[in-house]
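Sample entry (329 residues):
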Amino acid sequence: MPTNIDSSMIMRGVAYQRGLKLADVDIDDISEAIAQPESFVWLGLREPDPELLSKIQNQFGLHELAVEDARSAHQRPKIEEYGDSLFIVLHTALLVNDGIEFGETHFFVGNHFLVTVRHGASISHSKVRARCEALPHQLAKGSGFALYAVMDFIVDNYILVLDGLQARFDALESAIFISNPSRETMGGLYELKRELIQMQGVIMPVIDICNVLMHLDDINIPKDVRLYFRDIADHITRIDRAIDGMREMLIAAMQVHLTFETVRQNEVVKRLAGWGAILAIPTMLFSWYGMNFKHMPELEWEYSYPIVVGGVLIGSLLLYWRLRRAGWL
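Predicted structure, serialized as tokens:
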């Protein structure tokens, strides 16, 4: 098989033994590294092509169906067991320009290896790896602890995204009360509601995945490591409750926005009705004098015109004053 693999797709591959780093490993040396006692290989990939995935499949003995799923970035969050290895899919979320971009991270987990495959929007796992290497007594528990560390990192990013959405909601809520209701504000509220629904669809399957990991016996995940997956599930539950609370506040904000818009429209209608009432006085009188009858009172009276005009002005001003006091104008 050709070995001209694009190095940009390989983030890092490291062999660990008893929690300590042995060395960085190349793709061709993986099978030899995982054969060492009490060791495992942690390999990170970024949008690998079919050639690289085929090579990884041969080195780790991965199931062809799992590898086929890893080629595509359009998988649902799930966990699948293939003999003595697992295939896990989690969706990732990043806040970019006040909007959410979603990606995927696929995991191949075995007794002696952890392979992460990142697609789309995601953050490098280098900080996670550094924290794990600083805790060799934990990393000595094997690939299960490394899996927990990456999953916990992804869930922590959910919290950061939710904080960003909360800040957007606070700004939109302030816009409702400070400025007049606008189409942009309502559009922002609907967009935020859509993103919250998407976030719930991303996070909820993680609880089921954690429940499976807590009760697995075939994969070598120590019992004390399984407790950490329960902690992740608890974090997801809290995030879900926070999303529900924000959605309720969002619905209330939308109702307030619509109420303010209705009040504003009522104010406009009241003003139009008030000016219509004022204009009704001259309209009535001028329509009256517009009737072409020959024998009409006051047609030949010297003071008819100024009295009529003055009466119209006085009546209009009195009506304007009354409507102004009533708050219609």
